[in-house]
Here is the input.
Amino acid sequence: MPYTLEEISSRLEITDIYARYVHAADARDFDTLDHIFLPETIFDWTSCGGGKMSYTEAKAGPVFQGKLFPWSYHIYANPQIDCLDGGERARVLVKAVNPSGLPQGGNGASGSGSGKPVMFQTHGTYTDDLVKTEAGWRIVNRYWDEAFITGPFEKVEGIPGMLGLAGVKMDG
Here is the structure.
């Protein structure tokens, strides 16, 4: 069945939310994030040992502020968008790979580790519930289903660092 013009518009708007999210999350751009989530949006990280909290609580906490993971990068792909209730709500499943890291010897939230960065990658799926508001689509519930974590990896500085770690010598 072909999509209506309104369904196409909603799907493009929802896809745009995920592109804006990954860039804003990595830049800690809360002005943009405030237009993706509602203050009462619930984040549920219980699948990985975390808790549940509102967006307001999450953005003031150590993860969003970069104190727990000072190195963070978000990669989202393959959004599966199901529009519900005549196009007023949607459920989206999106695959996520989040390379991140913390200082070796750090105690987490204080960010006081003095060692080299220890890098990891989390792999999983976000299941998000969205609602269409007068201001556009907003995520109102976010559930993280962690599949696995890989690591630890060593953080290297650029391609020369990567080549050096691999024992490759560049002429020149």
